[in-house]
Design brief:
It is a single chain. By secondary structure, the chain is of the alpha+beta class. It folds into 2 domains: 110 residues, no CATH class; 202 residues, no CATH class. It is built from 17 helices and 9 strands. The strands form 2 sheets. Strands 1, 2, 3, 4, 5, 6 and 7 form a 7-stranded mixed β-sheet that branches. Strand 5, helix 2 and strand 6 form a beta-alpha-beta unit. Helix 4 crosses helix 16. The longest helix has 29 residues. It is elongated and about 95 Å long. It starts with a helix and ends with a helix. Pfam families: DUF2851. InterPro entries: DUF2851. This is DUF2851 family protein. It comes from Pedobacter psychroterrae.
């Protein structure tokens, strides 16, 4: 039965084997006082372990392999970091291992010390064709185990995303409003046109928009012009005026528009077309100068929603989905689901990141509270878990499930997952 070393790490870490009357291959009696700490970096697999070997207490590192000959295969005999190994735990013992001074490293053979059914269960999980490895078993896992691990996973998700925010903040020389503008722009692309919006934000700064904060047409001209949509001549009055404004502003600020070909229209309803999203984005810029600064002061979720609802989108877009192309009446406002998407992926993320950066726990807590107040998201990935008996109550839980799927389930990291560990230890 095939398995990887991390399964043996799991067995060792949680002592899921018969630890009574242990003996090393050379006959030394052995007792485990502390299995040590799992090392996720270079060097031996466990550090600070405490063992009793033939009545003497040893403190040091543990190295684990499937076969003892893997020691040489991995080149440990040339690495001084492995000289402090006090035990070599293996599944198969096929070759003795020596330190540089010629002393043999004690070997413990794990094969036969644990229930092989545990290995069979693990093998079934990681080789299954289910939507996620423990899909058949997860419904029987106690809620407290699931909610506890999902809380940890949610924190991991926001820590990872926060690192991206802080990286961009450094590029933008500590300007939180500009950094927020870049992330908000990308979010307005809603995956399909995220790259286009990100290029737009990179082509014209928030400070340029701020100089025209009282003129919605100039802001719209900058948005559509920099997006590449004003390169042609127009018969209609509204786009013709935008083009005239943009031609002036482009020269004034020495702007270069992005290539209009980056925008995707296929397989979308008109209200999701990038032109409509750009009109909404333009309206948001006009109606909310220093938006992030405003958000930092808001402590009520309803007020947050209102920032993104009832945007002053120009009436031209009520009957157009593109310049010079008419359509039946279009809903100009962001839907509730779209607003929630922005609140989760940009607003709450930035509150969390800002709280971490400034060491203000109350702002971090506010971000997490907002997630708990919003309903759970609904997509195919979350649907797999719902079908298996998991009921996410809010966005906090649905975000955690997305992270669980991305970083644990899809990578078959059951041995790093609190839910997977519970199933295997049953």
């Amino acid at each position: 039965m095939d398995f990887q070393e991390n399964f043996l790490y799991f067995i060792w870490q949680f002592r899921l084997f018969n630890t009574r009357e242990l003996f090393c291959t050379e006959g030394k009696s052995m007792a485990i006082l502390n299995p040590g700490l799992l090392n996720k970096h270079a060097g031996p697999d466990f550090s600070q372990a405490r063992l009793i070997l033939d009545g003497t207490t040893w403190v040091g590192n543990i190295e684990i392999h499937i076969k003892s000959s893997d020691w040489m295969l991995h080149g440990h005999q040339h690495d001084g970091a492995f000289e402090s190994v006090i035990l070599h735990a293996v599944y198969h013992h096929d070759k003795p291992v020596y330190r540089k001074d010629g002393s043999a490293i004690p070997v413990l053979v794990l094969k036969g010390l644990f229930d092989e059914q545990l290995l069979a269960t693990y093998s079934t999980m990681i080789t299954s064709s289910n939507r996620f490895p423990c899909q058949p078993q997860i419904g029987s896992v106690p809620d407290i185990i699931i909610s506890g691990f999902l809380s940890r996973v949610l924190a991991e998700r926001f820590e990872q995303k926060s690192a991206e925010v802080l990286e961009q903040l450094e590029v933008l020389k500590g300007d939180w409003d500009e950094t927020f503008y870049h992330f908000m722009a990308r979010n307005f692309g809603f995956k399909v046109n995220a790259d286009g919006f990100e290029l737009l934000a990179g082509s014209v700064s928030r400070q340029v928009f701020a100089k025209h904060k009282d003129d919605p047409k100039q802001i719209a001209a900058l948005v559509f012009g920099q997006s590449g949509f004003l390169a042609q001549d127009f018969a209609e009055d509204y786009p013709a005026k935008l083009k005239k404004e943009y031609d002036f502003l482009r020269k004034k600020y020495q702007l270069d528009p992005i290539d209009v070909s980056v925008w995707k229209f296929l397989r979308m309803r008109p209200q999701n077309f990038p032109t409509i999203r750009l009109a909404q984005f333009s309206a948001l810029i006009f109606s909310s100068t220093h938006l992030f600064s405003k958000i930092l002061e808001i402590k009520n979720l309803k007020v947050l929603y209102e920032l993104f609802e009832d945007l002053p989108v120009d009436n031209y877009w009520r009957t157009h989905y593109h310049f010079n192309k008419t359509t039946k009446k279009v809903n100009l406002q962001l839907g509730r689901t779209s607003v929630q998407n922005i609140l989760i992926n940009t607003v709450c993320l930035f509150l969390f990141s800002y709280g971490r950066y400034t060491d203000r726990q109350e702002i971090i807590d506010r971000a997490l509270d907002f997630l708990e107040e919003m309903p759970a998201e609904n997509n195919s990935i979350i649907g797999y878990y719902i079908d298996s008996g998991i009921r996410p109550d809010n966005s906090f839980m649905s975000q955690a499930l997305l992270q669980l799927n991305k970083c644990y389930c899809s990578q078959k990291k059951c041995l790093n997952c609190g839910i997977g560990i519970h199933i295997l230890k049953k």
